[in-house]
Amino acid sequence: MYGGDEVSAIVIDLGSHTCKAGYAGEDAPKAVFPSVVGSIDQMEVDDPGTPDKNSGSVQETKSKEKRKLYVGSQALGYRRDNMEVLPTIKDGVVTDWDMVESIWDHALRDCLLVDPKEHPMLLAEPSFNSQQQREKAAELMFEKYNVPALFLAKNAVLTSFASGRATSLVVDSGGGSTTIAPVHDGYVLQKAVASSPIGGEFLTDCLIKSLESKGLNIKPRYAFKRKEIRPGEFQTVDIDFPQTTESYRLYSQRIIASDIKECVCRAPDTPYDETSYSNIPMTPYELPDGQTIEIGADRFKTPDVLFNPSLVQTIPGMESYADIAASARGLPQMVIESINKCDVDIRRELYSSILLSGGTASMQQLKERLEKDLLEESPQAARVKVLASGNATERRFSVWIGGSILASLGSFQQMWFSKTEYEEHGAGYVQRKCP
Questions:
Q1: In the prediction, which pLDDT does 65 show?
Q2: Which of 209, 241, 320, 398 is 20 to 30 A from 149 in CA distance terms?
């Protein structure tokens, strides 16, 4: 037994857009920060081990050159010359374990201020996580952080627990992708998991390109300064930084664009078409540099890409994504395909408990639209019910909240994969301990 009230477990959900971390038993994560990492390659400039007080810690890579890694919204919000912003996770797969370490370091040591040796760790993982990814995570946690115990839980299962169900169909729409996974009695049915590369970041890019085609450019916060000419009157002065990397510029633009998306976008009630949405009233939005832009049909067109990926081809500048759009399927089709791959006996139950989770799923009207489309396309006998927490925070963090509930249960405490078991059986044992 590791549990009990004295030692609280730490729950970490590292998504492709945001990392959420906090204590089990609490109702929201303590630390939420972007899961991208700023990296500056330094050719033999300074001593590799100098920790920077802002970024948590600094790793050096295996090769000759060293790189400095910046983690957390504060460290990333500060523009540095030649800083590349790199994703830690691409399509649900970790691209660089050094960066994952720096993110875990930041979460545990800078945000939660805990010593990992004293807390069991519950890590959320994608429903289709590969065996070597799981073993690598277990190895890192036991070897580098010396955690007393570990558990890897699937995102879909945690979302299911967060809403108090053992069987459900989880539609998890996050930053990097949208995954649909049926959960039965607390286990993910692997053969029926479907996923699509269209997630929040993809929609944000659609919105940026759509606005640019209308001549509305989003200026990143570092590219201007506001100067007071008369009391209460400001003038915006552009500043030019030639050394800024393209990836940092895009990262800064995406922060603003995703705020626009969250504020004004909503899923349309009917499939989007140019003619019926052309004379829709405009919604104003004030950009950080003081200019107010008017957003019309794009408010509905961008979210509708989730339901109809072929819309991407009508957005100027998104031509490079045309092949993604051609292969991706809309949400309702994916839900029905996933349910049809499951056993006949549980299909009915899955139709009546479809759970929405993830940041993109908290978009207005998404639940109503998905329910409406599924009613039209599903078999007559099925009673379709799409459930989503009324609270946007809960929808965004449902995976984390499920982990928090699970790790604080008394009956869960004998499930941990302990350090002694790891030393005895090795990392491969994680497959048996964490189904």
A1: 59
A2: 398
- State how far the Cα of 304 lies from the Cα of 332, in Å rounded to an integer: 12
- The residues facing 69 across adjacent strands are 39
Q: What pTM value is reported for the model? A: 0.90
- Asked if residue 189 has pLDDT above 50, the reply is yes
pLDDT of residue 324: 85
| Antiparallel, parallel or unpaired: β 93-94 and 121-125 | unpaired
Report residue 26 as tokens. Answer: 């609490």
Token pair listed for 5: 């009230």
Q: Which residue has the tokens 């249960």?
A: 409
Residue 200 DSSP code:
H
Per-residue pLDDT of 203-240, as tens digits, reads: 999 999 999 999 999 999 999 998 888 888 888 889 98
Contacts of 173 (CB under 8 A, 6+ apart): 199, 200, 306, 331, 356, 357, 358, 359, 360, 361
Question: Could you say which DSSP state residue 24 is in?
Answer: T
Contacts of 371 (CB under 8 A, 6+ apart): 384, 385, 386
The CA distance from 416 to 422, in Å, is 11
CA atoms within 13 A on the CB side of 69: 26
CA–CA dist 74, 58 (Å, integer): 16
pLDDT category at 6 given cuts 50, 70, 90 is: low
pLDDT tens for residues 364-392?
999 999 999 999 999 888 899 999 988 88
The CA–CA distances, whole Å, from 403 to 17, 21, 31, 248 equal 18, 10, 15, 32
Q: What is the mean predicted confidence (pLDDT) over 141-167?
A: 95
Query: Would you say residue 64 has pLDDT above 70?
Result: no
The distance between the two most distant Cα atoms of the chain, rounded to a whole number of Å, is 72
Among 345, 351, 346, 309, residue whose Cα is nearest residue 326? 309
In angstroms, the Cα distances linking 44 to 57, 62, 83, 85, 96 are: 18, 13, 16, 21, 22
Output the 3-class SS for 306-369: CCCHHHHHHCCCCHHHHHHHHHCCCHHHHHHHHHHCCCHHHHHHHHHCEEEECCHHHCECHHHH
Report, in angstroms and rounded to the nearest whole number, the Rg of the chain calculated over CA atoms. 23
Q: What is the mean pLDDT of residues 143-163?
A: 95
The SS3 of residue 173 is strand
